[in-house]
Task: structure prediction
Amino acid sequence: MSEILLIAEQRRGELRPVSLELISAAQGIRRPEDRVAIAVLHERPGSFIEALGFAGVDEIVTVKVATGEFDPDTHEAALAALIGARAPEVVLVPHSVDSFGYAAALAARLSLGLATDVFRLERDAGELVATRGGYGQKVSVEVDFPGRRTVLLAVRSNVFKPPEGRASPPVTEFAAPACRSRTTLEQFIEPPGADDVDMTSAEFILSIGRGIGEEANVETFRELADAVGATLGCSRPIADAGWLPKSRQVGQSGKTATACKLYIAMGVSGAIQHLAGMKHVTTIIAVNSDAGASIFSVATFGIVGDIFEIAEELRRHF
Amino acid sequence: MKIMVAVKQVLALDEGFTIRADGRDVEEEYFVRDLNEWDDFSLEAAVQIKEAGGQEAGDEVEVLVVSVGPDSVDESLRKCLAKGADRALRVWDESMAGSDPIAIGRILAAVARREAPALLFAGVQSSDQSFASTGIATAAFLGWPHAAVVSSLEYRAAASRALFRRELEGGLLQEGEIECPAVLTIQLGIATPRYASLRAIKQAAAKPIEVLSLADLTLEAGEVGEAGSASRVRRMYVPEKGRAALIEGTPAEQAARLAAIIREFKGAA
Result:
């Protein structure tokens, strides 16, 4: 029998949805004799027991640590002790900003096998195989972990469906070792509020990316968006350059276009972080001069062409 | 005071690329090499600290760029020199081929032990393999404090601490303070990367690039390359992907079709 240990993630007292997706991810690699345990680290870890009670979990492990929020040294020390004590075969963590701050450190310290941003996991003749993207997601890469007793996998969010059946698995407590943290993480700062828009409720978005070339061209697309009745959005480089406010950025570190039904992406290459923000969209139309751009692999319709020409022609219709 | 900036020469794939006969990588002739997008930002953040003067500490700030790779990587290191790095150092040995972020982290940690920087920057992730692991693995081998996804930074030399903000999902930020020496992984947008002037490019071309070997770092061949890595590539393949239905024709015809789709949507909404 071996153990699959899941590390739940919470922020400001709320379990992050990807925590539950780990439970589903684990079911694909568990053999009949395997056990699935899910651990949660918090100053009051007991407050998450109910939220973690799903079928497919054999044990909930509450790990009491000094802080309520993530802190790299505390997390690393507690998880190193937990992994040392339980010797799981597999540790699943979310591929998230928090795990960026501890997953590789644990793998380095404990000589674990490691793969991050994993979107498929399976067994081949008993051996664990993880699949992730390579070369800007243009290829899929299968990796394995010869000779590793424990393998840590950081699992991409929104790939595995959250579990449905509720259950009340037994709870055990784990005492984390004392740890002096060399990083103090203090208050959260909310992202800048919507200037005049709420991308999350927009049903029709016209989004611009690096392809617009320079700041002076933003106006052309703002007018086009107004004319067709769309909300103007953008990808990260446009917001980073300060050409549009951060509140208009669609993607992992920006807004998720949750209500969007029609999304026109102009000059957006389609980095995975941007695609994460448009996963709910019903119809995507991509306009890009690069026929090989990733955006065409998620778009419903594609126009390979010059975004300025298309914009000018489209303007004649509205 | 020294800032070490770990950089990577990333590989993009040219159109029509094919998978190698052994099925474990892409044919080398299709690789297009460039400096990792994130590293442009971490270099800029380091150069800005240098330019701000380190007056508080009363000493000069030296920006050292370090990369692991064969001599083709010199081109990316020279780009960094042209954009304000003072020194460039490349580590290579044939045994390092196939190193994953854990093996690279071990190598970078060995360099950091020699160079003793106060701050070590790495990009949050690379644009080719997106592991988001190298910087933090380096910190673990050094036993240094670390913070990931830093989107703004203020170094307090006298206190040997850095104040920073890290960027969480959805654009939420969190403030923090960290003891130095520390490893910080730097997010896009922390600063606006500069363009190198022609003069700087010429000067960079004449600057030496130090090269260190395995022995210089007292590492063993078994600690790097595939042997020192935490995973092994079994197979690489081109995934079945959805493909957009292409709207063909002249720009006017394409736009007309797009306009029709918009009208249809608005009619239904």
User: Anything to note?
Assistant: Chain B has one domain: 2-223. The mean pLDDT of chain B is 95. Chain B touches chain A through 83 residues (CB under 8 Å). Residues 87 and 152 of chain B are 24 Å apart (CA to CA).
